[in-house]
Specification:
The structure holds two protein chains of two kinds. In chain A, 34% of the residues lie in helices and 23% in strands. Chain A is built from nine helices and 14 strands. In chain A, strands 3-4-2-1-5-6-7 form a seven-stranded mixed β-sheet, with helices on both faces. Chain A has a seven-stranded mixed β-sheet with strand order 9-8-11-10-12-13-14, with helices on both faces. In chain A, helix 5 (156-167) links the parallel strand 10 and strand 11. In chain A, helix 3 (75-87) runs parallel beside helix 4 and helix 7 runs parallel beside helix 8 (259-268). By secondary structure, chain B is α+β, with helices and mostly antiparallel strands. Chain B is built from twelve helices and 18 strands. The two termini of chain B are 41 Å apart. The model of chain B has no long low-confidence stretch (mean pLDDT 94). The chains are: A alpha/beta, B alpha+beta.
């Protein structure tokens, strides 16, 4: 078992003819993901490395039965791409694109209310169910099938944590990167809820960072609704206030969003917090044995 | 992106928000000339990107020409220190002079993104002139909020709710609705990321005026507002951070002595954190991003080394999109071009890490390769201490 994606997932790539789209469509395919279609308006009827291209997501879904979309279109067109995917009946939309205006995402979130679609991202690495499907830009090789669910706001720090887990022999059910933007689709709580319900996931790693209060809300959820062990880490303990640390959402604003507050809240809600980013997996292993 | 008060006011005026009449000046002569258009009393306000200007002596009420001249002379060129500038303060190069008004009441109106609801929140408070964080801390019951449904925008009834909570009455209610809707239109129209009118004043004649305006713009949306490029004041930015941006590097200066070069924002923060955990302190945040090239690695080293406090450098790359051998190539080029004067600890993992290690080993450079995260951090901390 896993959450949301498995070997049956049929993936279409929006923006497949751009350099990132093309490179990662191939990398996902090589991992074993069923990449069934690409969409680039105006290039319908062509093929790119064996994958048929369609003008619209509707066409692609009708012809191939795709049920997951992976988006690489540039920031100015990404909101449109997300809404097109949802309109075509795609159930899971993963948006890798970085730099989407916040106002666009506020409108997208409003438009997706009450629709049967899950959005992951934007500004995220995607998600992977090791051994079954990689739908994103993460390096597939560092992953291993196993009992740990992972959810994170970061990209490379997720790879770091996965690498540590795999080194210690702890494989993963599914790893989800929810992205570093202030307005995004799936949040920590959605992932934690899904991992709690997944019988194969035995423990969860949750990686947060400074900015906003999503980690605090997730910690309360863990305390109230979860039985499984959750190990956390918060990046940005040394970040100064008022400065954006790379991610649009990683900023300590008006005294809120500090790492120390998040860590304190997580601890008080029963999560186990790794002190160092180098000991995330080690901390989990200690609590599992 | 942060902009000046005078720029914020000019933008707001274009959206129908009422702001005082005024002008910008950079010399005392121009100040006196332009002042002919207004009448006394006037307010002279230092234009720097920091709050608390009044307390620091950067805002003066003047009643006649002599006072205006004196105020302009003393504020222009002063080193203004506020709680947001740091002890060194900021040099004032521009002043905004505006018509003073008869203030009956000072209120607060702000628009922020409520991240947990994914909606904009309008916040109003009776404590105009005070920082909203302070009010939130001391008197949270004095802050009133409404959340905007983006499908329909700020509704009149929502603005009225705030107006009644602020104890406005009569025509002031209607004025407030127009004012708040102007603010919303401006926020959306210019893709702002924060707007604060503090204070929003009610004049003795019952008019509403934005006496101050703090406007931040969404960096992600600047591509659809090319005209905003002119609003950037390079004097207000850290020159090194601007230069880094020009090379697609994300750099933030900090006050430690260990330079960091990392790919990805989360790992870059975690790298800073582990340095602290091991007893050191980072000199910077630097995310080279997914589009890194050997040239941008070299630029990154240049930028890190410009900080004279840097005693050692930690390169931590986890290759996903990024290829480690390309980063290694950049490190070698940088070392040859710049003659790196401090010890460097390199950790390369993921995509093409072995190829990267081979390149570094064959380069003849005295770098420390260490792939264990903790050991690499310990090593760089002890090197920075001269051990």
């Amino acid at each position: 078992m896993s959450i949301w994606v498995n070997k049956k997932s049929k993936v279409l790539v929006q923006g497949i003819t751009g350099s990132a789209g093309q490179y990662h469509a191939v990398a996902c395919k090589e991992y074993g993901t069923r990449v069934v279609a690409g969409v680039t308006p105006g290039k319908g009827g062509q093929e790119i490395q064996g994958t048929p291209i369609f003008n619209t997501v509707h066409d692609a879904v009708k012809k191939t039965g795709a049920d997951v979309s992976l988006i690489f279109v540039p920031a100015g067109f990404a909101a449109d791409a997300i809404l097109e995917a949802s309109d075509a009946g795609i159930g899971l939309v993963i948006c890798i694109t970085e730099g989407i205006p916040v106002s666009d995402m506020i409108l997208v979130k409003r438009a997706l209310e009450n629709r049967k679609v899950r959005l992951i991202g934007p500004n995220c690495p995607g998600l992977i169910t090791p051994g079954e499907a990689k739908i994103g830009i993460m390096p597939g090789l560092i992953h291993k099938k196993g009992p740990v669910g992972l959810v994170s706001r970061s990209g490379t720090l997720t790879y770091e944590a996965v690498y540590q887990l795999t080194q210690l022999g702890l494989g993963q059910t599914t790893c989800v990167g929810i992205g570093g933007d202030p307005v995004s689709g799936t949040n920590f709580i959605d992932c934690l809820e899904a991992f709690e319900a997944d019988p194969e996931t035995k423990a969860i790693v949750m990686i947060g960072e400074i900015g906003g209060s999503a980690e605090e809300e997730a910690a309360e959820f863990v305390q109230k609704k979860m039985k499984k062990t959750v190990v956390g880490f918060i990046a940005g303990q040394t970040a100064p206030p008022g400065k954006r640390m790379g991610h649009a959402g990683a900023i300590i604003d008006g005294g809120s969003g500090k790492a120390s507050d998040k860590i304190a809240k997580m601890k008080s809600c029963g999560l186990i917090v790794a002190e160092s980013p180098a000991t995330i997996a080690e901390t989990l292993k200690r609590y599992l044995s | 992106m942060k902009i000046h008060e005078y720029q914020g006011k000019e933008l707001l005026r274009a959206f129908g928000v009422t702001v005082p009449q005024g002008f910008l000046a950079v010399t005392v002569d121009v100040t006196l000339q332009e002042a002919e258009r207004l009448s006394f009393p006037m307010v002279v306000k230092a234009q720097i990107h920091a709050g608390g200007r009044g307390k620091g002596g950067g805002v003066r009420l003047v009643k006649n020409k002599a006072e205006l001249q004196e105020a302009a002379k003393s504020i222009l060129g002063m080193q203004l220190v506020t709680h947001q500038t740091g002890p060194e303060g900021k040099k004032v190069k521009k002043i905004w002079v505006e018509q003073a008004c008869d203030i009956a009441r000072e209120l607060y109106l702000g628009v922020v993104l409520d991240r947990s609801r994914s909606r904009l929140a309008f916040m109003a408070s009776l404590e105009g002139g005070m920082e909203i964080e302070e009010v939130a801390h001391k008197n949270p019951e004095k802050i009133f909020k409404v959340w905007v449904d983006p499908a329909v925008g700020l509704q009149s009834y929502q603005a009225r709710d705030l107006a009644f909570a602020l104890a406005l009455s009569g025509n002031q209610i209607k004025n407030f609705v127009v004012f708040a809707q102007g603010i919303y239109a401006a926020y959306i129209g210019m893709d702002a990321s924060l707007m604060e009118i503090n204070p929003l004043v009610v004049t003795k004649s019952g008019d509403l005026l934005a006496l101050d305006a703090k406007v931040n713009l969404d960096d992600n949306a600047l591509f659809r507002h090319p005209e905003f490029k002119e609003l950037l004041d390079p004097e207000e930015e850290d020159p090194t951070e601007l230069e880094a941006q020009a090379h697609n590097l994300n750099y933030v200066r900090l006050n430690g002595n260990i330079g960091c070069m990392v790919n990805g924002a989360g790992l870059a923060m975690a790298t800073m954190d582990i340095i602290k955990f091991c007893g050191g302190w980072p000199a910077n945040f630097l995310d080279v991003g997914g589009g890194v090239t050997p040239e941008s690695v070299t630029e990154g080293f240049k930028i890190i080394l410009r900080d004279k406090n840097v005693k050692a450098i930690f390169v931590n790359i986890f290759g996903g999109i990024v290829k480690c051998d390309m980063v290694a190539d950049g490190i070698i080029k940088a070392a040859k071009e710049l003659g790196i004067r401090v010890p460097v600890v390199v950790r390369l993992l993921g995509n093409r890490a072995e190829e990267g290690a081979t390149l570094l080993n064959g380069s003849g450079l005295s770098l420390t390769a260490e792939n264990d995260f903790t050991k690499a951090a310990q090593k760089v901390v002890s090197l920075a201490k001269g051990k």
